[in-house]
From TrEMBL:
Comp. bias (Basic and acidic residues): 328-341
Region of interest (Disordered), residue spans: 328-351
Keyword Ribonucleoprotein attributed: no
UniProt source species: Novosphingobium mangrovi (ex Hu et al. 2023)
Signal among keywords: yes
Signal peptide segment: 1-31
Domain of life per record: Bacteria
InterPro entries the record matches: TPR-like_helical_dom_sf
Protein name as catalogued: Tetratricopeptide repeat protein
Keywords, alphabetical: Signal
Length: 438
């Protein structure tokens, strides 16, 4: 679930890069005669072979038109073949055999790339792009795009080990593709070539640089880091990046991903998982029947009937649950809520006594938190934390939840920062929620 979501954009980047490439005009051109000004140096043998290619290229581009498609590309290939003795590729190969100067190789590679695209010949495209880079004549502003084009082409060929250095060179040149997917594509390339450490190192550098500059890390970097940590089954790192992603780019979708990853990796005890499900409810991240049934299992209608009824009602209203999923449980829970609410005043009075025990205080905090009476829950949890023998991690987590629900975001962050043990991953996500709100 998480894997598919985080990587899905890579396929889009590859598909778009291929389509956009056809419309790019050549960056070099060759006059019929050698440039006498000394700015370019073409060999005599190469010029003789290349001039017919250049003329055929013009006619093919005219045939291609402004909106290339499979039909116009096939027609452009046919024009080039007809103009070049029936075999345009052979003409390119012959020109390559006599391309001796850097300028020869650069201009031929540029034109060969176009023919490779319209003829859908990725091997020829790779040869063309490498010829340009090896020539040393690519203009500085084209270094990034050419490396990116070559890296993407290797990626399409599933030669990930070859793709990685060219995509990295594009990144180092400061290039960013039109879809802003280079970082995600490079990270995926590292992983697919058996080098997940490089992927994680790359995005860590990007994240650290963003933090040092006082800006939010790129969403693509956070997603790539989270994917790498998730693949490695690294709970601590996954929680860190999940929290950063949701804090900086909060939405039901990112909260769903962040919560689901921690939920999958942490194998949380029931009570801690309940607190995670509470966060999913708070951020509108609950999506399907599994989410609602898991929440109900954790809340237990016999333990927290008010909270369970709230989840049942929302699940039914959103169509995530059907009446058949609940059977008689909803009616039974509604009955429990009536009797449970009747006992709340006496429970509050007991917990408010100066000599209230630890169990009385924590139970009261839990009950009032389940009914969204967060101010009362905060009071009882705060007092419970002062008692000897308290489960400080669980109580502090729930105190932080009560504070966050009241909009006391700074206080919630300070409280949640003290949480450790099995509750720590959930506390980090709740802290990220508070930070996103503040």
């Amino acid at each position: 679930m998480a894997r598919k979501f985080l990587i899905s954009r890579v396929a889009l980047a590859v598909a778009l890069s291929s389509g956009l490439a056809v419309s790019v005009a050549p960056t070099t051109a060759l006059a019929a005669k050698k440039d006498k000004g000394g700015s370019a140096d073409y060999s005599k043998e190469f010029v003789a072979e290349f001039i017919p290619i250049q003329e055929a290229d013009k006619k093919a581009r005219a045939e291609l038109g402004g909106t290339p498609n499979d039909q116009t590309m096939a027609a452009a290939v046919a024009v080039m073949n007809a103009e070049l003795g029936g075999n345009a590729k052979a003409a390119y190969e012959k020109a390559a055999s006599v391309a001796t100067t850097p300028d020869d190789k650069n201009v031929l590679g540029d034109f060969m790339r176009f023919f490779a695209i319209i003829s859908k010949d990725n091997d020829l495209k790779i040869k063309a792009l490498k010829m340009r880079l090896d020539s040393g004549k690519v203009a500085p502003e084209q270094i990034g795009p050419v490396n990116y084009d070559l890296g993407v082409t290797y990626y399409q060929q599933k030669d990930f080990a070859s793709a990685a250095p060219y995509l990295k060179a594009a990144k180092d040149a400061g290039y960013q593709d039109p879809n802003n997917q280079l970082d995600l594509l490079l990270a995926d390339t590292y992983k697919r070539s058996g080098n997940p450490e490089a992927a994680l190192a790359m995005v860590k550098e990007d994240i650290a640089a963003a933090q040092a500059a006082g800006r939010a890390p790129a969403e693509s970097s956070l997603r790539a880091a989270l994917q790498s940590a998730y693949d490695a089954k690294d709970l601590a790192a996954s929680t860190e990046y999940a929290a950063m992603l949701a804090e900086n780019y909060p939405s039901p979708d990112t909260w769903y991903i962040s919560s689901s990853i921690v939920r999958q990796l942490a194998s949380l005890p029931k009570q801690q998982n309940l607190d995670l499900m509470r966060l999913m409810y708070e951020t509108q991240a609950m999506k399907d029947k599994r989410d609602y049934l898991e929440y109900l299992e954790n809340a237990d209608p016999r333990g927290y009937p008010g909270e369970a009824l709230k989840i049942m009602n929302q699940g039914l209203a959103k169509g995530a649950l059907a009446s058949a999923d609940l059977g008689t449980e909803k009616a039974d829970t509604e009955a429990r809520v009536k009797s449970d609410k009747a006992s709340l005043p006496s429970q509050e009075a007991e917990a408010a006594k100066p000599g209230a025990t630890l169990a009385t205080l924590t139970n009261a905090g839990d009950v009032f938190l389940s009914y969204d009476e967060n101010a009362k829950a905060e009071t009882f949890y705060a007092r419970a934390l002062e008692k000897p023998g308290v489960d400080a991690n669980t109580v502090a987590l729930r105190l932080g939840i009560a504070q966050a629900r009241q909009g006391k975001y700074a206080e919630a962050e300070a409280t949640l920062a003290k949480v450790g043990g099995a509750s720590k991953p959930v506390a980090e996500l709740w802290s990220a929620y508070a930070a996103s709100k503040s």
